[in-house]
Design goal:
The structure holds 2 protein chains of 2 kinds. Chain A is mainly beta. Chain A is built from 1 helix and 5 strands, in the order E-E-H-E-E-E. In chain A, strand 1 (2-5) and strand 2 (8-11) form a beta hairpin. Chain B is an alpha/beta fold. Helices cover 34% and strands 17% of the residues of chain B. Classes of the chains: A mainly beta, B alpha/beta.
Chain lengths: 73, 267
């Protein structure tokens, strides 16, 4: 099936059991425990990662923590 | 009223129909607080001073270190060992004597941040750690102060402008800070020197647009920059009804230090 990940169309194997959480594992997404997932325009709550299925045509963004700049605390 | 020398100094602004003499006066009357005088804060401070933003606060407790100079372009080799805010102030005043620079040689904390940002129109997050980033978000959201978030790591950067109550905040995106040491810092993972120049310049653009009241701010859009592929993308973000600070049932009603994230900054 085809989904869009971070703006790129991506083909992943068919798997009706796949949740957002298992997709993170399957793709070995960095910051897997902390990454924010936006699914079709909505930010998912972390507890929903395990229960939300991934469907054909989904548009998914992985949004990462990024620091940088100057130390200020 | 602009003086003759100000009309000449700002002539390239004044001929822009979006700015003009009135807009330049808005910049001169504007007050921007830059938190962090490092990689992100450096271009923001230089450009806002050059642009004639009349009052610029700059907060950082750190001193200039040799390893800063690869990217923190406001500090020079001769400044090593000097306080970053003093070093920044000298350059900003040398660029433009119109600008009043107010220095805060301290780290932001729950105890000092609300008082610090009270006098400013727009805030720049130029910090490198999540304790400070969440603190800045919370203080700005609770005080209704617009601000620009910036983040950089290695070859990638991100930025978003937060208009409290109107557009998504940093906690809409990331409800809580990551645990200490979970995310690498620039000092651990590296950063290409020009990267904070790109992201900081965008943050400075947002501050200027806000003061002028012109254009469309980067609110509700998370801008991602990948320098190796030389690609910009903006991802539309909606406000999160479950956001712990600006959602329907906020659990955060006062600023507090994120102690679990604090120890990230043991550079």
């Amino acid at each position: 099936m085809i989904i869009t990940i971070n703006g790129k169309e991506t083909t992943i194997p068919e798997n009706p059991e796949r949740s957002v959480d298992s997709l993170l594992e399957e793709l070995d997404v960095s910051q897997r425990l902390y990454v924010t997932v936006e699914l079709n325009g909505d930010i998912l709550d972390r507890p929903a990662y395990e229960t939300t299925p991934v469907n054909e045509g989904d548009v998914i963004e992985f949004l990462y923590f990024m620091g940088g700049g100057a130390q200020a605390c | 009223m602009l003086t003759e020398s100000q009309i000449e100094r700002y002539s390239r602004h004044i001929i822009l129909k979006e700015v003009g003499g009135k807009g330049q006066q808005k910049l001169l009357d504007g007050k921007v607080l830059i938190i962090g005088a490092g990689g992100l804060g450096a271009p923001v401070a230089l450009y806002l001073a050059a642009a004639g933003v009349g009052t610029i606060g700059i907060a950082d407790a750190d001193d200039v270190d040799l390893s800063n100079l690869q990217r923190q372009v406001i500090h020079f080799t001769a400044d090593i060992g000097k306080s970053k805010v003093e070093s920044a102030k000298e350059k900003m005043e040398a660029i433009n004597p119109d600008v009043k620079v107010i220095t805060y040689k301290e780290w932001v904390t729950a105890a000092n941040i609300s008082g610090m940002l009270a006098d400013y129109d727009f805030i720049i997050d130029g910090t490198d750690n999540f304790a400070a980033k969440f603190l800045i978000n919370d203080a700005c959201v609770l005080a209704g102060k617009p601000y620009s978030h910036g983040g950089i790591l290695q070859f990638v950067g991100q930025t978003i402008t937060v208009l409290p109550g109107q557009s998504p905040c940093y906690r809409c995106l990331f409800p809580a800070p990551p645990p200490k040491d979970a995310i690498p810092t620039c000092s651990q993972a590296g950063v290409i020197g020009v990267l904070p120049g790109v992201i900081g310049s965008i943050q400075a653009t947002e501050a200027g647009k806000f003061l002028l009241g012109k254009g469309k701010l980067l609110a509700g859009r998370f801008l991602l920059y990948e320098s190796l592929d030389m690609k910009f993308r903006d991802v539309e973000i909606k406000r999160n009804s479950n956001c712990p600070i600006c959602g329907e049932n906020p659990t955060i009603t006062e600023v507090k230090d994120e102690l679990d994230a604090l120890t990230v900054c043991d550079l």
